[in-house]
Amino acid sequence: MLEIIGYFASALVGISLGLIGGGGSILTVPVLVYLFHVDAVLATSYSLFIVGTTSLVGAFPKFRQGLIDVRTALVFGIPSIAAVYLTRLLLVPAIPATVFTVGNLEVTKSIFMLLLFAVLMVAAAYSMIRKNGKAVSDVPKEARTYNYPLILLEGIIVGTLTGLVGAGGGFLIIPALVLLSNLPMKEAVGTSLLIIAAKSLIGFMGDIGHYELDWVLLLSVTLIAVIGIFIGNRMTRRFDGEKLKKGFGWFVLLTGVYIIVKEIWFK
Fold first, then answer.
1. Which residues form the domain of 14?
2. CA distance 204 to 197
3. What pTM was computed for the model?
4. What are the residue ranges of helices labelled H in the chain?
5. 243-266 b/e with 16+ CB inside 10 Å = b?
6. Number of domains, the chain
7. Per residue in 207-227, pLDDT tens?
């Protein structure tokens, strides 16, 4: 029964990516850990493949519609890709089996990764729930300015977080593209999908050889998430994206709080 629920939740990952350009990837690790009983560290690796493949499929129609700014994707994506690859290759394997101990609570590597992920979920939920400021007006491509130092720094930060917790980071990438590259929202969503796809899949390559992978489970969940992104793309024509984003944000917030409570008090 838990696995059946897990497959439905996998579709939700893709639907969210199709509807609002992000958010769904933040659910992938909890789905794998609590519904498919995958170890937390291994789940971050699986998440990179699932999120990367799903985002890549979702990026194709955006590219055909002219909603991907390749120049911005390269400027933001290259440092992000380098950061996520090095994080998976060097940093994650270097985390000790027991990170620290507080009283009777032993924070193992798996618990540490889940708690870090839960904190990121709460931050993602806040970004989806809060009211947006004034919309950024569309700026013609020839008139756009790029804050290169901040774009590069943001790319490194997002790449490192992606490498640690296996989330795509769309909730961080999209605002950065709008504010630092003056991209219209629809173009920012499309460009974000391409960046997420590239850095997640290359980050996953840094894991090859470190873990024994269950390819049947991995490909099954990925296929369902890919189907979900097509459903999400169709649903964008019928539903208010902002209302859906806020509702999904509350769901992510509750999930993040649940993980923190469970791992600290009920482990």
1. 2-265
2. 11
3. 0.76
4. 2-20, 28-30, 40-64, 70-86, 92-94, 109-129, 148-165, 170-181, 185-205, 215-235, 241-265
5. ebbbebbeebbebbeebbeebeee
6. 1
7. 777 778 899 999 999 999 999
